[in-house]
TrEMBL record:
Protein name: Transporter
Originating organism: Paenibacillus apis
Domain of life (superkingdom): Bacteria
Taxonomic placement: Bacteria, Bacillati, Bacillota, Bacilli, Bacillales
Keywords: Cell membrane, Membrane, Transmembrane, Transmembrane helix
Entry-linked SUPFAM superfamilies: ACT-like
Similarity comment: Belongs to the MgtC/SapB family.
Length: 246
């Protein structure tokens, strides 16, 4: 009742069910971390990718077992699996968002790709590698994330966008304030908002900066935000402040 034929190209219904459930569990564990941190692809997406990959792996190995005995048929269990690795890229591309020079979603895209690999391992009965990789992914997402923020915060560049009125001297004050707080400016670009009225003419100042300790960042932002000509300040992944205009 629970057997689909016999031999290496066949599998029981019970074993198929176990593999699909394990894929659901492992994919859900990684997806839960993404969901908690409000990323584009979360709990359900990772479950679907992992279960789908396991399903395709099962199909690739056992779905054509009835033809294994034919003299002119060659079985290639890796063929459909290879298409999963190639095709999963469309989900990863959908999770990547670019805002100016700041790119987000790369880690989520990579987690989707890894979860597809985990699903393929489970579908092939390669349980040890599937569980090991799941644990390593969780360590990377939880532990390495905190380590990365702590160790690399002094070396990472952020994009700062300041919207302000185009009045003489204000930009110089902003640059001076950033320098006093130890914020290093690597690039500076001024873009006009193309306003026709001189009084309401605004510009957007885009700066690529390296940020020091958090208290220095807060102090600099508070001082610059209080400048009369500054309308809004945005720092990639950190701050987004704007003034309400009458």
């Amino acid at each position: 009742m629970f057997d689909i034929g016999s031999g290496v190209w066949h599998i029981t219904y019970l074993d198929m069910t176990i593999r699909i459930l394990i894929a659901l569990l492992l994919g859900g564990i990684i997806g839960f971390e993404r969901e908690v941190n409000n990323h584009a692809a979360g709990f359900r997406t990772h479950i679907l990718v992992c279960v789908g990959s396991a399903t395709i792996m099962l199909l690739s190995i056992y779905g054509f077992g009835e033809f294994a005995g034919e003299s002119n048929v060659r079985m290639d269990p890796a063929r459909l699996a290879a298409q999963v690795i190639t095709g999963i890229g469309f989900l990863g591309a959908g999770a990547i968002i670019r805002t100016g020079s700041f790119v987000s979603g790369l880690t989520t895209a990579a987690s989707i790709w890894v979860v597809a690999g985990i699903g393929l391992c489970v579908g092939a009965g390669f349980y040890y590698v599937a569980v090991l990789v799941t644990l390593l992914v969780l360590v990377s997402l939880f532990v390495f994330q905190k380590w990365e923020k702590y160790i690399l915060r002094k070396y990472r560049r952020h994009e700062m966008n300041i919207k302000m009125y185009d009045h003489q001297g204000t930009l110089g004050q902003i640059v001076e304030e950033l320098d006093e707080q130890g914020i290093q400016i690597h690039e500076l670009l001024v873009q006009s908002n193309n306003k026709t009225e001189e009084k309401s003419k605004t510009i957007i100042v885009r700066l690529s900066v390296k940020l020091p300790r958090e208290n220095k960042i807060v102090s600099a932002i508070n001082r610059i935000y209080n400048f009369e000509d500054v309308l809004s300040i945005e720092i990639s992944n950190l701050f987004n402040l704007s003034k309400k205009l009458n």
